[in-house]
Amino acid sequence: MAGVGGGVPEAMAGDNHLKVARVDETVVVQVFGLGNMFLAPTLQAFIESEIASGHLSFIIDLNHCTGLDSTFMGTILCLSKLTGRKYGWFCLVNVADENRRLLKMLGVINMVSIHDGDFPVTPGKMTVLLPTTDVYARQKQIHGAHRFLMDADPANQERFGPFIKALEEEMSQVPKILPPQPSPKRKKDNGSEAKS
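Now predict its structure.
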């Protein structure tokens, strides 16, 4: 698990990062600093890799989370639905009042399991995961997360519709990089290459 998402020593983590660990069959993710569009692709990639490895129980601990942006909240919604489709379990714990208000504002609060009250999570050694620096990965995450938010609450259609349309236009301008094509083979005549 240390290599997933670019694990680094804690001293290099900076303000916004994730700490992850497995506790028995449960995967614990602690969010430090802002849960934002830079951290959301890291969370998505990590959870998807854990699901692919057969882990289906997730605790997202927001005890050290100082705020949530719409991309991070849309990602939480996406991952909760993804886990549910696999018959797994996805739960937010230690949700402060301000983060709860933000989740309610975008209609996420009624679509994701939240454990009320204190939830002491005491995993052992944890791996630190940093925000992504990949601009295109971040754009894709923003787009996908807001699509989930727009599907979750009709009010989000008006709130994010123009933004998503502009983002789709911006993403469509990114040049498509094609793999190199093999050189055409030259026909041989009597064991020697044909002259051009």
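The radius of gyration is 21 Å.
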